[in-house]
Amino acid sequence: MEIYSKIKWTLGILMIFLLIVFTNLMDRNNFLKVSESVESIYEDRLVVKDIILTITNKIHKKEIATITADTIFYSRENEEINYRLEKNIEQFKQTKLTRKEKEILNQFIADFEKLKEKETAYIQSDFSDKSALVNHYKNIKRELNDLAKIQLVEGNKQFEISKRAMDTIELFTQIEMYILVFLAIVVQIILIYNPKKR
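Below the sequence we write its predicted C-alpha cells.
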C-alpha cells in the first residue's frame, strides 16, 4: 500500500509539473511575439518615421532656398545638407523594409541623385532657371509622403500582431486556471482514494 501511495503522490506532482512546463512554453512563445512586435514598431517604424521627418525638413530647406534663389545657402550649406541626407538614406536602408517601401525608397534615391544634378545646373545657370528644380521637389515630397504612410500601416500591423498575442496570453491564462482547478480536484481524489482491502 505504501508503494501505491508513492505512485499517487508522484502522479499528482508530475501532472502539475507538466502543466506548468506546458503553459510556461506557451506563454514564452506569446511574450516573444509581443516583444518582437514592440521592437519592430520602435526600430523599423518610429525610428524610420524620425528619419523621414529629418529628410523632409532638409528637403524643405533646400526647396525654400531654390524658390528664394538663396545664393548663400547654395554656397555654404547645400553640400553639407546633401552629405547629411545621404547619411539619413543609409540609416533608412539599414532598417527592415517592406517590398513596397524598398521600391519607393529606391525611387526616392534615384530622384535625390537627379535633384543634385538639377541643383548643379541651377547654380551654373546663375540661379536663373529654377522651374525644373521646383517641379522635381514635387516628386521627392510625394515619395517621402508615401514612405511616411507606409510607416503608419506597418506600425498598425505590428500593433495587431502584439494585440493578438496578448489576447492569446489572456485566453491561455484563463484555460490554465481551469486546468489547475481541475488538476487540484483530480490530485485530491487520487490522494484521498483508498481502495479497500478484500
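The mean pLDDT is 83.
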